[in-house]
Specification:
CATH topology of the largest domain: Alpha-Beta Plaits
Oligomer: single chain
Strand content: 5-15%
CATH architecture of the largest domain: 2-Layer Sandwich
Largest sheet: 3 strands, antiparallel
Low-confidence stretches: none
């Protein structure tokens, strides 16, 4: 196979000292600055900005009414209408999670429980929100519709340990979900 030699294009005097690129960048920046000071920034009205640019004043203004339907936020666990756990510890969400952010420890349901026909429930269910990439694969793979991605983007913590949400915290955030749950289906 023959070797192909490429030659770089020759730069003229203006390109060698970069003044042309510097002036172009300066004038573009100043154009945007003047437009934003005059209140003509694109998108400022739709974001309800403060008037200078399109920056949203965060604590007072939120993205909540601007979120698209397809937005994926924090993963949470949900219960059914009677407060029962939907999760059956099948561990599919743990296996499919690309960054391995989900850890599940399954446990047995006691034989004297009236719902003992269901074999397992999670003893521990942890999601590391620092590792989570909010891809939604856990929600898609769950056969019992036990895990959902909420439209929550305010996930904060003061330490790494605080960013690992355990089962109780996930149920607290997730709440109750209405609808058919395969786990409690009598025909199953």
């Amino acid at each position: 196979m023959p070797t192909i030699k490429l030659t770089r294009p020759k730069l003229d005097a203006g390109e060698k000292i970069y003044f042309g690129a510097l002036f172009k960048g300066f004038f573009l920046t100043m154009t945007h600055a003047i437009k934003s000071l005059r209140g003509k920034s694109p998108g400022s009205k739709s974001l309800k900005s403060s008037g200078l640019g399109v920056t949203m004043q965060f604590p007072e203004q939120r993205w909540d009414d601007q979120m698209p339907e397809y937005y994926r936020g924090a993963p949470t666990l949900v219960t059914d209408e009677q407060g029962r756990e939907r999760c059956v510890s099948c561990q599919l969400c743990e296996f499919i999670c690309p960054p391995k952010a989900i850890k599940i420890t399954p446990s047995e349901i006691p034989a004297d429980d009236k719902w003992s026909k269901v074999e397992k429930r999670p003893l521990e269910f942890d999601i590391d929100m620092i590792r989570c990439i909010y891809c939604g694969m856990c929600e898609e793979v769950c056969p019992e519709q036990a895990i959902f991605l909420r439209k929550d983007y305010l996930i904060t913590g003061t330490s790494r340990a605080a960013m690992v949400h355990n089962k109780e915290k996930l149920y607290e955030i997730g709440g109750t979900r209405v609808g058919l749950v395969n786990k409690w289906n009598e025909l199953k």
